[in-house]
Amino acid sequence: MERIIFYILAIIMIVFAIKAVSSRKMLRAVIYLLFVLIGISGIYFMVDYSFLAAVQLAVYAGGVIVLIIFSVLLVHHIELKLDETNLKQRVLAAALSIIGIVLTLYAIFTFDFNPAENSRIIEVKDIGMGLLSVGDGGYILPFEVISVLLVAVMIGAIVVAKGKKLER
Amino acid sequence: MIQGITIYEILTLTTIIFFIGVYGFLTRKNLITMLLSIELILNASAVNFVVINTYLYPESLQGVFFSIFIIAVAAAETALAVAIIINLYKLVTSVEVEDTEVMKY
Is the ipTM of this complex over 0.85? Predict the structure, then answer.
């Protein structure tokens, strides 16, 4: 059962990822990306990381995609199609990507992973305790750095997007 | 871990998504669609952290923390990139890569 669900998710994600990077209508590319992100949150649900799946849905599907859709609506005419990249560049990029896939898969399949037998249900409490712990292996410092980064980005985005008045 | 699915299958999936993102980054000529490709790349690597955590070291939580940090940094990066793109559109009325020669007017 899990196998079937995983393969359906994988096919959906790969197809929509290809559509997202090759669609010539920009708004549709964004919506295809939304499907890929939802598929990734499905993977998180399948490995029993419900908190991470919820974060993925809230931050990406709820935040990032809406932000990108607004920017597409602001800077691009909906009916307009994107210019097609020339064939030579596309073939070169595809060849590079395929070489990359083959090399990485070769490295993965020749490496001998030793999966652990036991598994454990992760609770949100464990994640919170780990993030805020000041002891060994605690993540309080990166957590604080991330919060400072988010504040800086908020202020920076306001300042940058406000910009100067257009002068002709 | 997922019943009946080995770590190799999930790593194959994330590798393919990662390189689809690389392909998009190399072929797209538009700033917003390049941003979409970057999101694909970041998501594929975040899944890798989580999967290696659950399959190989189920008793630790490091992969989850790294994924949370990746998601936070990606959200920050998107917000700033969208701000820069909108500002750039005000200056040069285009978001194509070829037209963006100056950031300082």
Answer: yes
